[in-house]
Design a protein that fits this description.
Elements lengths: L6 H4 L12 H9 L6 E4 L1 H8 L5 E5 L7 E4 L13 E4 L5 H12 L9 E4 L4 H6 L7 E4 L3 H7 L3 E5 H4 L6 E6 H6 L1 H19 L4 H12 L3 H11 L14 H15 L16 H7 L5
Parallel strand pairs: 4-5
Antiparallel strand pairs: 1-8, 2-8, 3-6, 3-7
Helix pairs in contact: 4-12, 9-13, 10-11
Length: 286
């Protein structure tokens, strides 16, 4: 929407969008300088710092993940997953771990009471719900819509089953931000304006049209995706602000389920520099 409405052009920026097929390519591409700015699950930024020892910093938020716990139609409650398969993209990704946390709070332990089955991507776990081999998964639009069209049902959204969560955010190499503060400010200003336009009711049809075109969705799917963006706490954060409590919750899940940091989540400040975002707010046009 920031591109569509000319907000980047107004800042003298012509962004080139690159879609990466998975988190590994996203992380490696940023570290190798193939692109300068990453928008994706902020758990990837944490992984780059902790596992790859890269000096990555999160500059702003995005959304609350828009995740739902999807199950086969015969599943009525979480304990019905006992002995069944929880299908995921990969066992250690944040969304997979979030599902494991929700299921644990419902009374079942992954690898003990149920199986954790990695299938890769988002499409394969969605397809698996149409077979007896896949009993549950965590997913987001449009895959949630596709799964429910095929007969799957939702046990609830993350915001209802777990609480605040920081999903997609913007993160960069710290050195690049320090060397290009005005570029970061102009980019972030335009991005915030795009976030505002996305949530304005008068821009609904334009936003749906952009979703259709850019994500190759039909109008129904794009409309549902738009509605999901509007859900407070799950969809797009106002001004794409960073959800600090949601990020603390993410770190707590990594500590508890993955066993990171000996089970004790670290302070979030080391992964963040929101000063660029806060300065950009002053330049956002109403």
């Amino acid at each position: 929407m920031a591109i569509e409405k000319g907000y980047f052009a107004r800042q003298g920026i012509t962004p080139t969008i690159m879609f990466t097929p998975n988190s590994d390519v996203l992380r490696a591409g940023l570290a190798d300088g193939k692109f300068e700015i990453a928008h994706g699950g902020v758990d990837n930024a944490v992984a780059m710092v902790e596992a790859a020892r890269k000096d990555v910093v999160i500059l702003m938020g995005g959304d609350g993940g828009m995740m739902e716990l999807l199950v086969r139609p015969e599943i009525q409650k979480i304990t019905d997953l006992k002995g069944r398969n929880y299908v995921v993209d990969a066992p250690g990704t944040a969304y997979s771990l979030l599902g494991q946390k929700i299921i644990k709070d419902g009374g079942l332990i992954g690898g003990k009471d149920y199986n954790i089955t990695p299938l890769g991507g988002s499409e394969s776990p969605t397809n698996a719900l149409s077979t007896p081999d896949g009993a549950a998964t965590m997913n987001f639009p449009p895959w949630t819509v596709i799964a429910k069209d095929r007969g799957a049902k939702s046990l609830g959204r993350t915001i209802d089953l777990f609480g605040p969560y920081q999903g997609t955010g913007m993160w960069v190499m710290r050195s690049w931000a320090q060397q290009n503060p005005l570029v970061v400010q102009r980019y972030t200003t335009a991005y915030i304006e795009g976030c505002r336009a996305t949530l304005v009711p008068s821009q609904r049809q334009l936003t749906i049209s952009v979703l259709q075109r850019e994500l190759k969705l039909d109008q129904r799917m794009a409309s549902i995706a738009y509605d999901e963006l509007q859900i407070t706490g799950s969809g797009l954060n106002k001004d794409c602000a960073f959800n600090l409590q949601g990020f603390k919750n993410l770190l707590a899940v990594l500590a508890e389920i993955l066993g990171a940091w000996n089970g004790v989540a670290p302070p979030p400040d080391q992964y963040l520099d929101l000063s660029y975002y806060n300065r950009s707010l002053a330049f956002v046009k109403p």
